[in-house]
Description:
The structure holds 2 protein chains of 2 kinds. By secondary structure, chain A is α+β, with helices and mostly antiparallel strands. The model of chain B is unreliable at 1-12 and 384-388 (pLDDT under 50).
Amino acid sequence: MQKKLTVLFLLIVAAFGALSVKLYAINRDNGEEYKKQVLSQQEYDSKALPAKRGEILDCNGTKIAVSQKVYNVCIDAKTLNGKEGQFIEPTLDALYNSEIDFSYTREDLKKYIAANPTSQYRIIAKKQPYDVVSELMDKLNNRAQNPNIKGVWLENTYQRTYPYGSLACDVIGFVQGDNEGAYGLEEFYNSTLNGIPGREYGYLNDDENLERTIKPADNGKTLITSLDVNIQSIVEKHILAFNKEHENEYREGNGSKNTAVIIMKPDSGEILAMASYPVYDLNDPRNTDGLTVVVDEEEYSTQGVVNISGEDGEEKSDNEENGEEASEEGEEGTSEVDINIEESEEEADGRGSVTAPAGIRDRGSAKALDPGEPGEEETEDTQPEPSGPKTYEEAYEEAKMEALNALWKNFCINQTYEPGSTYKPFTMAAGLEEGVLTGNESFNCQGVKEVGGHQIHCNNRLGHGILDFSGALEQSCNVAFMDIGAKMGKTIFMKYNRLYNFGLKTNIDLTGEAMTNSLVFDPETMVPSDLAISSFGQGFNVTMIQMVTGFCSLINGGYYYQPHVVTKIINDDGATIKTIEPRVLKQTVSEETSARIVELCNNVVSKGTGKSARPAGYRIGGKTGTAEKYPRKRGNYVVSFMGFAPADDPQIVIYTVIDEPNVPSQASARYATILTKDILTEVLPYMHVFMTEELTEEEKAALSEAQLTFAQSSDESLSENGIVSENAVEEGQDPENTGVVNDSVIIFEEEEQKEEKEVVLDPETGYPIDPVTGAILDPETGQPMDANISDLE
Amino acid sequence: MSNRRGGHKKNNRDKAFFDYSMLFIVIFLLCFGLVTLYSVSSYEAMLDFGEPGYYFRKQAQATLFGIIMMFVVMFLDYHIWQKLAIPAYAVSVILILLVLTPLGYEVNGARRWLNVGISLQPAEVAKVGMIIFFAAHVCKMGKNIQTLKGVLRTLLLGVPISVLVLTITDNLSTAIIIFGIIFMMVFVATPNYKEYFLLGAAGVGVASIFVLLVKKGVLTSEQSYRFGRIEAWLNPEAFAGTTGFQTLQALYAIGSGEIFGKGLGQSMQKLGFVPEAQNDMVFSIICEELGLFGAGAVLLMFLLLIWRFLVVANNAVDMYGALLVVGVMAHISLQVILNVAVVTNLIPNTGITLPFISYGGSAVVFLLIEIGLVFSVARRIRLRNSGD
């Protein structure tokens, strides 16, 4: 027995020896590899700490865009399934007894945990605010008391919110995906607003001990803008009112295809307000409730092309319509008025290189697809054909995205159009500056002028008769301006066109500014008729921001400021990182010319076509515009007013553009002037601009009524927009001054009214009267105000 | 052996023999086990129970109770157990059967525990029970054990309890250990070799057939999780995410320890990578923290303990005492060898714990009772041959 025992012991020793050899072998053969493996497994310990995105404030410090800390609730199904699944029920109890809004129902989550036992990361509730998750957070922090709550944790993140909803949506833009700004300031300043995420990680020190360290997140910078939430609200309120008033008036849809307003400081290039309509909710940019997405069944099934008609969903690429439009109009016959047709033909006959100007007009004007027109099918053919037939859902999705993309674009900087008569001050200033004009000229308008073989009509087809220099602008006489254009020649005209920055970007600090370099004339290939029509603002394309920035330079002494929205960038602690000072890019005209233009524009409002733009109690200057859109003869117009206030010391410049007002006869700048007046009536008192003019009894009555309603409606609209009246108080403003003007501070001043003798004007509107019929004519179109037929220019 | 007795003759003529070396080794292993257990389990305990010392505390309580039991058994005359051989067998069987009653409960998906005021694992009782029973049985058989028939009959007696452990508690490793203990006791009690080598070869052969079938894909993890473990054993990397995870992580721990290890408490693999590190896989963390040197030292301590068993068994006053010690020796050496073999992936993963070090209250109490038996046998060693 002792012998056997010894044998057994030796066998055991042998086994121990074998095990020792194996241990040694593992270390020798795989030691290095396993060591690295162990270290690499530690990597999961590192986690990103999100950075807070910077805020966007208005000039008074009101927060327009903020980032709030929110929490994602995550689960680890593997842990939950551990220990016989005894954690599942207590954990689910803790979760579902809270107010957290889960993406799963309790039953679904249970099924998920059972079906994915190895899943270790799943977000089950996204972006929950602190007060909702605080209860769960307490339970998780107190593990000793809640030993059965397991496999759940909270993850920090930030949620972008916009307290004012849709306010200034086109300027602000929104944030999508992983903190990526889309459109507006959010995109332009994305890298400034975005901080640098921090990281919490473990690392191995010299002794290969695991140590943990935290590199904190570097929060994003805050933008202080020149926008004023109060002015922006006033502007948006009136734009909305206009569009509600004309909703479904002539055709289905909004009161206009687009209505946009820019208010800017002429002496610094700072944008005070920039708005367009329709708007969208920045907190829910993908909401399509307000959009009408129409998918034509035939099109998606046969050609795979989607026709959208939404609030502004018709933004087809204009290029596609070039050829067809011209030929289409050619078929209509050669009316002597239609200079464009004749011109196109001439260009085609004469020189091959003139395709660019022809293209300019085409691209610039036509935007609407009019169903039923012969051009439509051809247009569709030029669209890139998608591969394979689309299902209805695909077609619908595509149509929806197109409509949304159009909605998100900022009309004020993205959309190009022909400016029309608002360009006339630019022409005049160029002439004065170059000495081509003395300012004492007089013009004889017979209602039509022949240029290069074309009969180009004045807006007043009856003719304005003899007009003096100021009268030419007051009456917006096309013939007079064709004369001026011819006198200065295309070289000077185009030199100033470029000097005013047309064809170039203004480089405003917003994403999406349109390129217009191919949408202006090339002096090399410009023909006399091109010069004639461009002298009164047709034939080439501009953006609103180009127009308003150029106009600022015309009235501020000739200084062309780079337009900008952001005035200051501060860091998380409130320290200033960068101040953006007004930047003069160039001098467009001299001080003298500028002073003259101010005077001329004042005359337009006091005596001419802009009378209806004057807010009661103030003197302002400006110029109206009514531009027929391409294709011509469809009755589609862009009506506008560009003005400044107060008249003798311009503090703000306002530019109002209404694209296709939804009315039977669009060709009236009155829609723009009235809207401008409504806006200025509220904005000027808010900006502490004193009234200088005597109020008539009617005006007083209207104003006191308006003030009443203003006081009420402003409260409503402010609260609707989420503006808290504390803002005004915080900024130290007297609430009275924001809307209500005290009569005692009004300075009354008599002003001489000079009546024009050559043309009989309606004393109320300043519009010409047809001497034969006695009807009031629209100064831009020369048509009786109630007439449907519109003849441009 | 006679020399040794001669040595005692002079000094300890009438005194009881007390094996201080063995006591030291046992105390060392117990203390080392507790320190290691705390190091290995504190992270998981903090996560699971919010108390880093949770496992340590429970193990320390069990150890204290076990030491008391050890001294109680030590001062009892071990011949009591010889008379209680059949009841010991019966109690083992009954306790195993009790698992089927509502007294039994599950942990980690295996129903192996009894709740009788305290938590008790019947398989641990069965190991002691079998040592007591077979020591008595072999003594009773006398010369008959030396025939092949006697050997087979004795081994057959061990089959029912092994089958019960395997089927009722679904615990293959304990079944193997119980049968292994009986096998070793019988091996020592008989002078032959051939039969045992044949039996051993047969066992290895059967196991090889299973392994081969798994390798060929005839038997898969869908039929039994045990075949899945064989698959993972053959190629742990291929099952790194599932069945091979534990083994692979244990290998990483061993391989990253180098000669002197990362230092006590410095293991990274215990931080959630090696599952159940405080149980079966505790040896891998010892390798990681204390290196080959530490692991070798632990193995050496076990070897010394087994050597002390050998000494006591050789000097035992009677056959029964010697066989009791052989049983304990077989038990501890089998568990150490199989545990380390699993950790180093020499054999497929089974749930065998490392004596004195792995977490387990029942295990440590009954181990200490076994040590008590050995001390009890050792105390009887006297110079009875002084008159020769």
